[in-house]
Amino acid sequence: MNDRHAALISAFYDALGRADFAAMERCYHPEVSFGDPIFQEVEGRDRVMRMWRLQLGVRDGLKSEYRDVTADDFTATAHWTARYTFHSTGREVVNEIDSLFRFEDDLIVRHHDEFDFRRWSKMALGRPHGLLFGWTPLWRKTIRDRATQRLDEMSPS
């Protein structure tokens, strides 16, 4: 176990729970890349931080809890739970997320979150869209395209 890297992951999640963007950004390498089932590939610290601002802006009252942090000299894993109200539908979401990290220069250079898209879709979007279409590739592409468009429209902070 690399205690320094484990502490960095804990600092990141603590900052996420407070929506402390400056503290989150300090955890990331300038060339960080982020990916998840919705934002498949986001490159660079500025763009990744815009993605987090967008994400936290469409989630009312985000509460996050993390656990099971493991870290070595090169990688780390963690599990976190995001609880929030999805802004566009008003629906409550409890999303279970597994994260994988890679380090460079003692900062996070790769951050990948994995969760069940179909389960998320049912919670966030409800019926009929999330329940009926949450598993289809076309619906996933629609959600991803909308998210990317919103990210592209955001001005840098």
UniProtKB/TrEMBL annotation:
Keyword Isomerase among record annotations: yes
Origin: domain of life: Bacteria
Pfam families associated with the record: SnoaL_2
Domain SnoaL-like: 10-111
Keywords: Isomerase
Entry annotated with the keyword Signal: no
Record GO terms (molecular function): isomerase activity
InterPro entries documented for this protein: NTF2-like_dom_sf (IPR032710), SnoaL-like (IPR037401)
Protein name as annotated: Ketosteroid isomerase-like protein
Lineage: Bacteria, Bacillati, Actinomycetota, Actinomycetes, Streptosporangiales
